[in-house]
Amino acid sequence: MQPVELFLPLIMLSAPVAIVLIVLRYRYQQSQARYRTLLQLADKGVELPTELLVEPQVAFSERRRALVLISGGFGLMLTLLALPGQLDNGHSIHELWGLGLLPLMTGLGYLASWWLNRRGDVRG
């Protein structure tokens, strides 16, 4: 086995882990900056509104999550269909296009849930 054959899968598997770690570090730095600012304001004797003391929450959006999953599923399907190459057992890589159905169908489920919840809010 060549070093490239060992190195490439390691990079591919570590990329999602690195992305998660970068996002977590960014959020941690944001919280620390917010707490430092609150401490500075408190040291100056400024009355802190209760809105500043509560952690900001990301709005829950089923529609956004649905669209991301649907487009990710389509992207995965098209990528696998476009990839040339053969697997060791003689099958082609483009036969794996069905793997994109999982995020696609999950996204369609979120989209249906968003639509049904929205209809329930309008009626009452």
How does this structure look, described?
The chain is mostly helical. Helix 3 runs antiparallel to helix 4. The longest helix is centred in the N-terminal third of the chain and has 41 residues. The radius of gyration is 23 Å and the shape is flat. The chain starts with a helix and ends with a helix.
Quick structural gist:
This protein is an all-alpha fold.
Q: Overall mean pLDDT score? A: 84
What form results from the Cα inertia axes? flat
Question: What is the total domain count?
Answer: 2
User: What amount of the residues lies in strands?
Assistant: under 5%
Question: Can you give the helix content as a percent range?
Answer: over 70%
- Structural class, judged by helices and strands? mainly alpha
Largest sheet: none
- End-to-end distance, in Å? 64 Å
Strand and helix order: HHHH
Strand element count: 0
Compute the gyration radius: what is it? Answer: 23 Å
Q: Would you identify the regions where 5 or more consecutive residues have pLDDT less than 50?
A: none
Number of helices: 4
